[in-house]
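User: Please run a holo structure prediction.
Assistant: Happy to. Please share the sequence and the ligand.
User: Here you go; the ligand is 6-O-phosphono-beta-D-glucopyranose.
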Amino acid sequence: MPSQPAPAPRDLPSSVQIVPGEGGLPLVRVTGRAGSAEVYLHGAHVTAWAPVGRQPVLWLSAASRFADGAAIRGGVPICFPWFGADAGHPGAPAHGFARLLDWALVDAREEQDDVVLALGLADSDATRASVWPYPFDARYTVTIGERLTLALQVTNRGHAPVRFEAALHTYLRVQDVRATEVAGLQGAPFVDQLAGPGARPGEHRPIRFDAETDRAYLGTRATTTVHDAGARRTITVAKDASNSTVVWNPWIAKAAAMADFGDDEWTEMLCIETCNIRDDAVDLAPGESRTMTAVLSVGG
Ligand code: BG6
């Protein structure tokens, strides 16, 4: 269990409330001086964020499920301790167990104009029965303000080295993905996850979307900028201690095939995922910690 007890409601700053969310799941609602956000304890899932005076930055599907055992579709799912299907274990849930479990709120405070939440998850009977049965502590610090800072710290609490993958699988809202360009990953080699395992050489141009796109850029710490022409804004995703970035849009057929994704919603989103996956998976010695951070900001 997380090492710190949850703050009592009377200890929460006035900018933080815990209310029943969709499906009755506990929701932390933040109304800070510089930004607002919604965070479900289920999956430690940030489902909404907007700086004051700005339109929502994160995308959330109108068809999302909000239920125990199901991942929320949109916002920022935490993929941990594996990414995608676990090839060696066909029955394992996609993207790991972290987005399916209830995290604890262990701290909530104001720091100048920002609101800082900390959520915790540790190994349990459920995780020890999974394909990744190791002792661990995860602490997720969410700083809500003019920027959104997401910091996932994982500590190896066991006596043997462990290896894990992680992703902050950020769904961004855009006016129309077909008029959106993603810059920053030029030159970085990538695995086209729709084509096969081999890495392809980097491209010289920013990414544009005219078909299903599912690319894992490896060995890159680059900042990514989303140019949303329709909304006349840019969304920037900077990162720290993250060596991979996934770019995903399901396009028409895959959107239609997903029960928790509206058939026409693919036009209004794309994912820029701050990751350590595949060859960039993290090795932790006993007692060691690693923190991967994504920082979102809006301009234009
Ligand atoms: C992306 C993967 O990160 O997540 C895609 O690269 C996958 O292959 C997508 O389809 C959504 O995954 P899920 O498990 O949330 O449906």
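The first strand starts at residue 16 and ends at 20.
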